[in-house]
Structure formats: C-alpha cells, structure tokens
Amino acid sequence: MRTFPLVLMAVVPLAACATTGRGEAASTQRAEQADAAGAHHAGRIDHAARERIAREDMLSQMTFWAQEHTNFPDDLEAAQKFSEALRKGGRNERAVEVASQALARTPTDPQLLMTYGLALIASNRAQDALRPLALVAHADPSDWRSRSALGVALDQLGRFDEARAAYREALAIKPDDPGLLTNIGVSHLLAGEPEAAEPILRQAAALPSAPAEARQNLAIAVALQGRFDEAERLERIDLPPQVVAQNMAYLRGLLSDPRRWGDLRRGDSRVQ
Length: 272
Known about the structure:
By secondary structure, the protein is mainly alpha-helical. The protein contains 15 helices and no strands. The longest helix is centred in the C-terminal third of the chain and has 16 residues.
C-alpha cells in the first residue's frame, strides 16, 4: 500500500521506496549489534562526540547512540537519543521499549515523554501516546510540538475534530507554520473532506517556508475532487514523472471507489 505525505515534521513521501539498501542494512545491523552487545565501556561521557554525531546521517546516529546506551545504560540523554534514532530509522517497537525503560527511572522528563509518545504514534499505538503527550503539553503551555503530535495521534484514532483543535492550539503558539497548516488540511483529507482541505493546504503551500509535502497534499486534495491535470502539475514540482503517474493512478482508484478512502488513514505516515 502506498503511503501519503501527511506531514508533521518528517514524512514518508507519497511513493517512497520502502526497501533498504545494502549499505543501510549493514549500518542497521551494526546498530543492532552495538545495542545487543556493546563494546568497551568508555567510563566517561564524550560530550563533544555527542554534539558531532548530530551532523551525521541517521543510521550513523543510531549506531552511535546504541553504543552510548550500552556504555551508559542509566544516562537519560543516551536513552532519549537512542530511542529517537531508532524511531527515525524505522525500528519503532524497539524505540518504544528503550523510552519506556528510561521512563521507569525518570517518569516526568518532558523530552523523554515526547520521544516515547512519538515512538508510540509511529508504532500505530496512538491511544497509548495520548497520555505522555498530554503530560508534556500540560506542563508547558508554550510547547507547540506536543500539541501538534497530539493532533497526529487523534487523527490516527479518527477523532478529527479534537485533532484540529490540537493543531489550532499549536498554531496559536506558532502562527502561520506551514507544517501545522498542512496537518489541519491532512486531517480534513483523512475525514474524507478534500473540499475543506484544499484552501488550508493552499495557504500552507503559499508560505515561503512551505515543505514539498504541503504541495503534495494539496495535489491529493485536488485529485480527490477530480481535477487530475492540476494535481499532476502540482506533483511534478517535486516528484519525477513516473512517480506522479503512479500516484495519479492510485488516486483515481480511490476516487472511483469511495469505500477505499479509509486507505488514506491507513497510509498516514506523519511523525515528528
């Protein structure tokens, strides 16, 4: 099944390849080995190395933080960063496990709660994600990210009105954010309301800092109203012709069979 570019912070594009390259597989295997066994205990945390690794690719980060977590199993930063890297690397259940174990020792840390909530969303456990994300939002009235993540979880549960209320709370903190506007539009798409989604997604796509996903979600909204020529033009801004053709064929199938509109929700791949 295709996944749609339903955006929060990071997304799986509409026609993204789900296979892992040989190099990526090797890096993931190294991360797993480091997580399972670890190497020599370093004794003292190298904070400079921790700062440097943030500039590397995600698989390198996963390997690094796996080793740090092994070397310093009680260190909060190592657990949080390792869980985050695992989620971004697609190992969602392991990300949940690492964050959960750390929360048993530090149950109120907001960053760890946020990481745990996002890992639960990525694992399609949105109901479980509501409590940790709500705790973060309640503790910090200025935290727009936790409110946005709550919206994604609520969308995943089909509670669209509540999801949009959460996005609007986030938008009040961070006005005119194209990602938040995109999420509101996506919420309407998931509810089967492309007409309501279109003007919001147009607003998001018109902003100077708009991500490609804003345009791609706008293309979905337009296509689901039968305007495929316009949808193709929007998609061609960011995607190659072959991918655009595949996406349009998929969306034509959705439009011809409304019973399949639930595919949109099942394909919602938004994560922070």
